[in-house]
Amino acid sequence: MSSFNYGVITMKVLTKIIELKRRFEVKVFGDSQCSSQMGSLENFRGFSLLVPNEKEARMSVRKKGLGLEHLAHRLIEECECRELIVTLAQDGFIAYTRDHKDRIINQPFPALTVNPVDVAGAGDSLLAVMSTGMGCRESTLLTAAIACCMTGLAVENMGNRPIQAETLKRYVHQIHGR
Fold first, then answer.
1. How many other C-beta atoms lie within 10 A of the C-beta of residue 56?
2. pLDDT above 90: percentage of residues in the chain
């Protein structure tokens, strides 16, 4: 679920989503734009994955001076999310997940495109790949690596245009060196 805080995803809708998540034991993935309007990631409490940018994460936690690691850990705790991706614009993103002992670990993923044509759709592409992979019970970090490739492709096009599966597959093989 992606919310731009224009009033479509109300608290009533969010409450129902959380209720259905619990009843059917499904994963719920969320991105909420807080940078240009008022918004809070706290409303997404209990989601499986949250995908804010760094500014949105800082606004939600209300602590500007925290280092990125402390910020991410605090956001995971406050929102009770299992996993988190903090996007860092031209610097890529950092994925936070839990290891087999339930400790939070992280893995940075660089931006693969040095000179993006248009960043529209990069966040949508990231959330779509993460939702698909994690929904199929694939590991968070493997899914994030594929999502990194998808966002690299997304910013090479003008506008928010779909990327074909075969294009992504070729790109992953190209990056992997096969």
1. 23
2. 48
